[in-house]
Amino acid sequence: MTGLGPGAGATSGPPLARTTLDRAAHRRTDREWIAEAWLRSRVVVLDSTADGRALVCGEPPHLVLLAPDDLPHPPERQPGPIFLGVEPDGVPVFAVDAALPTVPGARAVNLRDVGHLLDDRDSGILTTAVALTNWHLRHGYSSTTGEPTEPDEAGWSRVDPAGGRAWPRTDPAMIVLVHDGVAGPQGRCLLGNNAAWPTLPGRLRFSCLAGFVEPGESAEAAVVREVREEVGVAVDDIGYAGSQAWPFPGSLMLGFLARADPTEPVRVDPTEIAAARWFTRTEIAAVLADDPVDAGDGRRVTLPMASSIAHFLIEHWLTRPV
Fold first, then answer.
1. Is the link from the previous residue into 60 a cis peptide, with omega within 30 of 0?
2. How many CB atoms lie within 10 A of CB 115?
3. Mean pLDDT computed over 111-136
4. What is the rounded CA–CA span in Å between residue 135 and residue 170?
5. What rounded mean pLDDT belongs to the chain?
6. Which CATH number characterizes residue 218's domain?
7. Same domain for 196 and 304?
């Protein structure tokens, strides 16, 4: 797959939707090839005990990839080396969950911190590594029998003693930028503060509305339902904008824009949303420029982290005609 954007900071697609890896799925069951590939591979090390951090160097940051012989000790944590794919130059790439080695000039970061700053190659490698590592951490036992499972297929499945196999799954979730359809600086979007988010001194974070797609439901139907449930507003003119993995621990975020009537009363569900309000393009541009915008209670408005699809949707709306 070719990356969706031209490099670090690309805006043609969500930040964690970019990759240059050939996943080479046909190799996962070829144990002889995997064993040989490991010996000549590039390896990304991430530490699940330290919030899934990995090493980067430089500005803009680039991933530190090691040769297997450069690892301080053989990978001991399950699932062992995970085969991520093959680079355009033919070199295999693996991930291991281990304590981060000491590399001069390197620093430990989380995918949330740097996902938007990485180029297509590194974004794809780290996003896949985090997603698969988190899946293994949550699936040590069979959901059918309760028996312990072991990793197989180069880290792409787990097997119980009876041969029952489970493959990685992601949870589909929709996220939507609700807007009023008005062009220009006074066009508005509706953002909310999630009741589950931690309190930030002097600041109040607003983001797009989101929720999991329920069984038997389309993503578009989930947009209508979630917006109605969370802020009591009806939407129409729903349009798909893009998707990206959000492996914390295992979601696929399906991004949309939808139109609503700003004169319709906003009635939040307090179990889900602590606050919600309409913002003009002028206000959103000010927040993105790090200028103060009052949340309405003296606190300063902040927006989602730049690695999130929520940030992508907000910027996408900000720069589009309507």
1. yes
2. 25
3. 97
4. 9
5. 93
6. 3.90.79.10
7. yes
Q: Are residues 21 and 161 in the same domain?
A: yes
User: Which of 87 and 73 is assigned the larger pLDDT?
Assistant: 87
Q: Is residue 3 part of a domain?
A: no
Question: Domain span at residue 259?
Answer: 171-319
Rounded distance between C-alpha atoms, residue 255 and residue 9, angstroms: 18
Q: How many structural domains compose the chain?
A: 2
Q: For residues 105 and 218, state if they share a domain.
A: no
pLDDT at residue 3 tops 50: no
Task: Give one DSSP letter per residue of 15-77, joined into a string.
Answer: GGG----B--GGGTT-HHHHHHHHHT-EEEEEEGGGTTEEEEETTTTEE--B-GGGSSS---S
Is the residue at 4 inside a domain?
no
Torsion angle in degrees (nearest 10) through CA of 32, 34, 40, 46: -150
What's the CATH code of the domain at 65? Answer: 3.90.79.20
Quote the tokens at residue 182: 């008005």
Q: What is the sign of the dihedral through the CA atoms of 87, 89, 90 and 94?
A: negative
Cα(287)–Cα(268) distance, rounded to whole angstroms?
Answer: 23
Cis peptide before 15 (omega within 30 of 0): no
> b/e for 73-97, b at 16 or more Cβ within 10 A?
eebeeebbbbbbbbbeeeebbbbbb
Reported as a pLDDT band with limits 50, 70 and 90, residue 321 is low
Which residues, 6 or more positions from 138, have their beta carbon under 8 angstroms from its beta carbon?
249, 250
Place of tokens 């359809």: 181
pTM recorded for the entire structure: 0.91
Question: Could you tell me if 179 and 75 lie in one domain?
Answer: no
Residue 320: predicted pLDDT: 83
96 and 202 share one domain: no
Quick one: average pLDDT of 92-106?
96
Q: Mark whether 158 and 186 lie in a shared domain.
A: no
Contact 82, 32 (CB under 8 A): no
